[in-house]
Amino acid sequence: MTKISARQSSAAETAPVDETADYYRESPWYPYALIAPTMVTLTVVALLPFLYMGWISLHEARYGQIGDFAGFSNFMTLLGDARFWNSMKVAGLFVAIAVPIEFMLGLVGALVLSQNIRFRNVLVPFLFIPSMMAPIIVGLVWKTMLAGSWGFFSYNILERFGILSGTSVFASPDLALYGLIFVDVWQWTPFMVLTFFAGMQALPASPFRAAQVDGANPVQIFFRLTLPMLAPLLFVIGLLRLIDAFKIYDTIYILTNGGPGITTESPSVLGYKYTFDFWEIGTASALAVVIWIIFFAFCNIFYQIAKRRLNVF
Amino acid sequence: MNLKMGCAAGLSAVALVAAGPAFAWTYEEAAAPYKGVEISILDEVTPLQEQFADIVPQFEEETGIKVNYQLMNHFEVINRGQADMLSGRGEYDAVMAHSLQVGLLMDAGVLLPIEDFVKDEKLVNPEFDVDDLIDPAFKSLAYLDDTLYSFLNWNYNMVYWGRNDLLTHPDEQAAFEEKYGYKLAPATTFQQLHDIAEFFTRPAGETLAGETLDSDFYGIVMEGMNGGGTYVPVWQIFIKNSGGDIFDADGHPTFDTPEVIAGLKMYGDLWAFSPPGQAEYSLIDVPTVMGNGIAAQSIAYSDFVLGIDREGASALHGQFVYGAPPTHEGNEAYHSAGEPSAYFISRHSDNPEATFLFLQWAAEKKTQEALLSSGVGVPVRDGSWAELMTKGKELSGLYDAMKASMAGIEATPKAPRWAQISDAMNRVFQQVGLGQLTAEEAAAQLQQDVTAICDPCLIQ
Predict the structure, then answer these.
(1) Cβ neighbours of residue A191 under 8 Å, at least 6 residues apart?
(2) How far apart are CA A71 and CA A59, in angstroms?
(3) In this structure, how many other beta carbons lie within 10 angstroms of the beta carbon of residue A26?
(4) How far is A120 from chain B (nearest CA, A)?
(5) Cα–Cα distance between B120 and B132 in angstroms, integer?
(6) B20 band by pLDDT with thresholds 50, 70 and 90
(7) Per-residue model confidence (pLDDT) at position B458
(8) A168 contacts in B (CB within 8 Å)?
(9) Are A249 and A180 within 8 A, CB to CB?
(10) Integer Cα distance of B384 and B196 in angstroms
(11) What is the pLDDT of residues A223-280, one digit of tens each?
(12) Which residues on adjacent β-strands are paired with residue B208?
């Protein structure tokens, strides 16, 4: 103990004192200086393009050529287009079904993994596989599995045994969206499992030991300890997945391209069509702004509820 | 072709030919001022363009102009090429554009007419025979009123594609004749197309050409995908050969006519004999299904057929028969389906003269002969047919079908909002096939939808 103190004392005496560094650290501008590079980068790559998009949305813009100020006419065109409302309905239905299923399965999977099951170390890397795949690869995989008449799964099981005779999942207006939801659940449930499992592993052990000593059963432990302690993680991951699911593009593009008809046309797919098929850049920008406003409002409400009611943040 | 366009084409041809014997024109001399210049050309990749890439160095040798010849897939070349021209970035001096894109690009003013170049004796080859370019594809594509924008470079066309082994099988022929009262043969009319489709649609367990089927077999397969090119054969073959069309002479939508309804009904009825996944099939899936042997006949793009009907590509190679796409019985004005395409010079090109030389060279007879020398290709010149048929005897039936098909192919009308119009057609045509809309409902809905997009729809 004495030796250590002597060494510390010696180091303190010999180390040069950087008074300039202390001066800057005490400056009220120091934190801002630290985050300045990030803020500049974000301004250039995110804020400026966003502001430019907002500016375009208020102008006549076709063929990539920006014309006169047009007020809110692009927004009126968009809001008067039945396809926009259809796309919102598609995305809403997609999120409302896919995300809760992924959330629940993720939670159950994480609880199962927490039970020290055999081969866990082998299983966990395999769980990463779907989430590591690029959405375009996921689309191609499921196209080869569920394509009508030649897809491995649809041809050998659904059609051959008459389960869905005479149809094809992605060619059916009634089934295509549910097929996409199935693919999304397949891809993102393992990610939820692993995230929730990691969160559970990081929880402090002592409250659980105390609960066991007090005779709490597993259900009580889950609802009274695990769930409340995991709440910040659950809310953040849930919110991110919800936003991500609403933006779905790649998988739809590969599997249905928004069809049959417009039954699987999400706002992202519609935005792409407005931009690169129709070259209606003004309407596309208005779509992007409207989606941003919706998410800005939604995320703020979500944040406030989580902060005030659930003490998450 | 209208009178104005005809006169303009004739004048161009005369101008090109009349200057002929005055001096010995060469590409080397014409390109001398541009030696060392690099031009960028964006083209769509298919087996044919990969072959063309092999002969582009000949142009570089002849002219000293360096060509950055890039190949991308169908959707990339459309998106990237259009984006480059519309944005004014000018990365590409010329971009291959399908006729469906031309209305939008012309309306945006980003295509450079080549009128001045074809009048320039230094640039134009006096022996370049413009009248040999296949019509009506060329003139309907390359002219807006009397202004020339390009030559013809790619001539995508659709053909009728059938299983010859089934159509000539004695048992099948006898059974067909007994049921329908006429001989089984490749379809030339809509009624035959329908009857053959119905006749050959059989579930697993039934017999086909003496063999027991272990999976379902279908009478026909066609494009049905939303967002693809489904509308092309429906409109250009079924509707136009039924006497209908989508615009009148002034460009006003004309979907709600009995002729359009008849064409739509014919197309929709055929879905009953198609594979269940047809609503997902694009122009790529159709030849795949035919090559896998689960359908008796099809209407498909000939360049994709060329990828299937060859040694090693399909077990059914040599078993196919071809013809021009069928028409309504008694129809006099024959229409077929296809997509004439060309390289168009960007208005933002820094080297338009050098690029024009490339366009001209690409459409030259000797270049086309070099391109078609392997016996596989889609000609843009009437004079190339003999060369192709000699070299490619094995597929002479397909080339006959192509030639017959091209006689009825016109470029897409120059409508600036064609992407929206075709999107609406794809969507509604698919719903007819899926049984969600009747032909009458579809025609009424399209009239309403397209009128909301544009009326009139053609460049004014």
Answers:
(1) A106, A130, A131
(2) 7
(3) 8
(4) 40
(5) 20
(6) very low
(7) 96
(8) 276-277, 279-280
(9) no
(10) 34
(11) 999 999 998 899 889 999 999 999 999 999 888 888 888 899 999 999 999 998 889 9
(12) B211
ipTM above 0.85, yes or no: no
List pLDDT tens digits, range B127-151. Answer: 999 999 999 999 999 999 999 999 9
Tens digits of residue pLDDT in B297-331: 999 999 888 888 888 888 888 899 999 999 999 88
Measured between beta carbons, which residues in chain B are less than 8 angstroms from residue A63?
A: 86, 104, 107-108, 110
**Residues B111, B344: contact at Cβ < 8 Å?**
yes
Residue A88 has pLDDT above 90, yes or no: yes
CA distance to partner chain A, nearest, from residue B215 (Å): 8
Closest-CA distance, A153 to chain B, in angstroms, reads 13
pLDDT tens track for B411-430: 999 999 999 999 999 999 99
**Which of these, B271, B266, B244, B303, lies nearest to B192 by C-alpha position?**
B266
Q: What is the pLDDT of residues A93-135, one digit of tens each?
A: 999 999 999 999 999 999 998 887 888 788 888 888 888 888 8
Residues in chain B closer than 8 A to A149 (CB atoms): 275-277, 289, 294
**In the 3-class helix/strand/coil scheme, how is chain B assigned residue by residue?**
CCHHHHHHHHHHHHHHHHCHHHCCCCHHHHCHHHCCCEEEEEEECCHHHHHHHHHHHHHHHHHCCEEEEEEECHHHHHHHHHHHHHHCCCCCCEEEEEHHHHHHHHHCCCECCCHHHHCCCCCCCCCCCHHHECCCHHHHHHEECCEECCCCCEEEEEEEEEEHHHHCCHHHHHHHHHHHCCCCCCCCEHHHHHHHHHHHCECCCCEECCEECCCCEECCECCCCCCCCCHHHHHHHHHHHHCCCCECCCCCECCCCHHHHHHHHHHHHHHHHCCHHHHHCCCCHHHHHHHHCCECEEEEEHHHHHHHCCCCCCCCCCCEEEECCCECCCCCCCCCCEEEEEEEEECCCCCHHHHHHHHHHHCCHHHHHHHHCCCCCCCCEHHHHHHHHHHCHHHHHHHHHHHHHHCCCCCCCCCCCHHHHHHHHHHHHHHHHCCCCCHHHHHHHHHHHHHHHCCCCCCC
CA–CA separation, B152 and B404 (whole Å): 18
Which residues, listed in sequence order, are joined to residue B72 by a DSSP beta bridge? B44
Contact between chains at B108 and A259 (C-beta distance less than 8 A): no
Residues of A near B (CB-CB distance < 8 A)? 62-65, 147-151, 154-155, 159-160, 166-168, 170-173, 256-262, 273, 276-279
Do the Cβ atoms of B243 and B259 come closer than 8 Å?
yes
Quote the mean pLDDT of chain B: 90
CB B137 within 8 A of CB B337: no
Paired tokens of A147: 């394509």
d(CA A212, CA B279): 58
How many whole angstroms separate alpha carbon B413 and alpha carbon B127?
30
Pairing, β B338-345 against β B94-98:
antiparallel
- Asked whether the beta carbons of residue A278 and residue B420 sit closer than 8 angstroms, the reply is yes
Supply the pLDDT for residue A51.
95
Residue B239 pLDDT grade (very low, low, confident, very high; cuts 50, 70, 90):
very high
Q: Which residue of A has its CA nearest to B273?
A: A166
Three-state SS for A58?
coil
The first and second tokens of residue A81, run together, are 């287009």
Q: Which residues of A touch B423 (CB under 8 A)?
A: 273, 277-278
Classify residue B145 as exposed, middle or buried by CB count within 10 Å of its CB (0-12, 13-18, 19+). Answer: exposed
Give the model's pLDDT for residue A102: 96
